[in-house]
Amino acid sequence: MDKKLVTYAKTLRQNMTPQEQLLWRFLRNRHFAHYKFRRQHPVGPFILDFACLRPKVAIELDGGQHDENRHYDENRTLWLESRGWVVLRYWNNELTENTDGVLTAIFDTLRAQSVSHPLKTATMQYTQPA
């Protein structure tokens, strides 16, 4: 793995946006229906905001700068999907204004992707952040 990419991922983990911090409070420590998530996780040449390795679900939170980088994000999504990843992309304000809706959509995707993993028939349970 590229050492520069790993170093950059560590920097991103230390400088999370408020929206990333909010989502991480729900996803960390298997609080979200017992799924294991990683934050700022390198995959190939990219760093995923949040990654659940089983099933392969990536969650990306986008701010205004992503509207200008739409082509880059589309190519990135195609690359990840070609390797079996499902990519969920939310705008920062979407998470802030509709947290429960975003969490429900994430859960529904995880559950749908887990059909081939019978041990992962979770119910939507998550610990409310303090």
From TrEMBL:
One of its GO terms (molecular function) is endonuclease activity. The keyword Nuclease applies. InterPro entries: DUF559, Endonuclease_DUF559_bact, Restrct_endonuc-II-like. Keywords: Endonuclease, Hydrolase, Nuclease. Residues 4-110 form the DUF559 domain. The keyword Iron-sulfur does not apply. This is Endonuclease domain-containing protein.
